[in-house]
């Protein structure tokens, strides 16, 4: 009998909530050695990070020799790791951590060390024998071959690794960097394709560009915003067992203000993203440790639903994101991207809540509680992020998935006017849409008119519950009209559904049923 191979989303218990821990890359790059990791483990076990859940110590690139051994196996650099990786693994495990490593699917790692191509079985066994339970598999130096596109080549290599890892007695957590090699905003078709298969092969995927390294030129905040933005494009793929990875937390980056570091943490937690810190842990300040160990936000990150917060609205400065939590409450996360203080009144109906109910709102940063009805008022410093948890009284517990419907390639928002069109997102109610369980779609600016296909184009018609007003949302990002089978299309309203076409891929509010 063929052994059924299950991992990630088919077997969420491999990694039921996103990973938390340490990785050296963004802070130290290739400047890594045994002492860095023992000092990091010692500091994390005494400063509260381990107790807060950061239990993974992961090595990144440059840990190995430039040559494989005679028998083909990988070897660690004995100058950097004089007592060896099995010893280091035992050391971190004796403190309560688990041990992770980095390799590459191609000929060479990004740093020029031996890649795993052709050595997959051997390397997997080597890692397991060293006590490693987590593999970040990068995708530098992968090339197309005859008869296969580059995308197909990645799929076959990551598929090979998936098969090997999932046949092991103790499957390693599999972090896949493949999508990062396809995140080309000029054309996302291959990127969407790769994002479609990574959840079947592994537990997390680096979907886009690297977060700025410590010594890198440029703005660390801009880098955080870039990765944040990419993450908002791929919410539909995440579910328990598979997590979108917007890359490391960089709390000791010298270019960041305290509000900016706290924002990165709050946003990543709202996404249920991996929380992998890349910093010099022994030198983190008390304030840094305090926000990194914030219990209420870590509980959000580790919430069993693993629902990624999605955009309820976006204007020129402020993003409002929302999601559900396993206890039935609703999270609202408000980010001020702008360069001044921002004041906003956020209507509860854009969060999918009823405007006629009284909710208890906890400010997760300071724990203060207040009753809210109809709206929440928020004041934010530049680049700060607020997070509220709204408890829903029983009679008001129904949440209608509500928020922006936006093209994930152009970033433009579906906008209700006399018909529908795509415009720059401005936070207006005509750009906030509710999606009912039967697939009807209407804007908050006029809840009596539903998105319809009429005369071969997308229009708004009085809601009548008919199939021409029903839409299904695919894992492909397509919004497909049930009656006509046509897909919503930026530019032409609706059109024949094509394969992962930029103009037909949309981000929808979380909680909408996803098919495929
Ligand atoms: C790539 C990855 C980084 C890091 C480096 C190591 O750039 O995206 O996270 O692993 O390689 O060389």
Automatic annotation (TrEMBL):
The lineage of its organism: Eukaryota, Fungi, Dikarya, Ascomycota, Pezizomycotina. GO terms for cellular component: extracellular region. Transmembrane segments: none annotated. One of its GO terms (molecular function) is alpha-galactosidase activity. It catalyses: Hydrolysis of terminal, non-reducing alpha-D-galactose residues in alpha-D-galactosides, including galactose oligosaccharides, galactomannans and galactolipids. SUPFAM superfamilies: (Trans)glycosidases, Glycosyl hydrolase domain, Ricin B-like lectins. Signal peptide: none annotated. Residues 400-509 form the Ricin B lectin domain. Its EC number is 3.2.1.22. Keywords: Disulfide bond, Glycoprotein, Glycosidase, Hydrolase, Lectin, Secreted, Signal. Its main location: secreted. PANTHER family: ALPHA-GALACTOSIDASE A-RELATED, ALPHA-GALACTOSIDASE/ALPHA-N-ACETYLGALACTOSAMINIDASE. One of its GO terms (biological process) is carbohydrate metabolic process. It comes from Aspergillus avenaceus. Belongs to the glycosyl hydrolase 27 family. This is Alpha-galactosidase.
